Amino acid sequence: MTEPAPSNIHLPVPPDLVERDPTRLRWGTVSTIKAPLGAIARFAAYHLDLGASLIDIFLDQPDPQVAEFFAPFPMVRITQCDAAYWRKKPERAQRSHQLRQAFNASRAYRRSEMHWLAHIDVDEFLLSPRPLAQLLAEADPEAAYLRIRPAELLAQDDPWRGPSHFKLTRRERGLTKRELADIYPDFGAYVPEGFLGYTGGKNIARTGLPQIRLGIHGVIHQGLPISNYSRLTDVHVGHAHAPDWAHFERHLKFRMSKGSYREKIKDRMRLRDVLDVIIDAEGNAGLRRFYDQINLATPRLLDRLTAHDMLLTAPLDLDDKVARWFGDLPREHSDR
């Protein structure tokens, strides 16, 4: 009788890969980025300020000026993903932004000298109440990777300075769908977590393990999900998915066709379905009404989120961190 194929795998963690001393522990990030210099500098400065030892960046759109700006800062490593970079690499790895992200992150993982490596994007910020090295040093020594729950940035006047407001998922707080409809009266029943972006979170992987593939939301060994993971319960990945209406509107077409809102076979009710209905019925005015109710940090929404313990407030202070780590940006990149 044929044995059923395994659905996941336990990947043992050798004791010599476990660093329990937070003063010796080194962690970093890896990202495939297509963004202006200002956004990259803010992302890098934020995570260096949090304690990262290396920010590993693959430029999906090569830009010599970005490399030149970061050249004096060895803690930021820039790789230009130009024709020379992709030469002799698998064609299938280049077919989409998602595949390029996974290919580059997995390549960075194999060469990493860190103890832990987080695969995150330029609009994502690790939110930790304590130095992240301390939490990683306390992690389960048998965990191959740690899951980080998502928080989504709300639209507000200036989220980059002072307190920045994020919302949490319904599942994290154990709410019912009916309670979610109390927070978002018109759309809570149709947007299961009340999020515009992903709801699965991200991961930080223990380095040095064999045959690892870092996906966007998963860590894979020889094609199988790894079963021995844990959660960083005090840490969130703050996602600035749609920090203002203009950003949401500008990226909507791409996200519906090729990005995070695109058709996915496993989805029963997708955000794209909701958006299609709104567009058909009310057009752009309906989209704006939807965005404002779901994502605009009005006093009413903040009160509702607070009442359900779904509001997370954490300072980003990105421009101050850029000045501290890198000094002044070139004038043409000083504005967001």
From TrEMBL:
It comes from the Bacteria. This is Glycosyl transferase family 2.
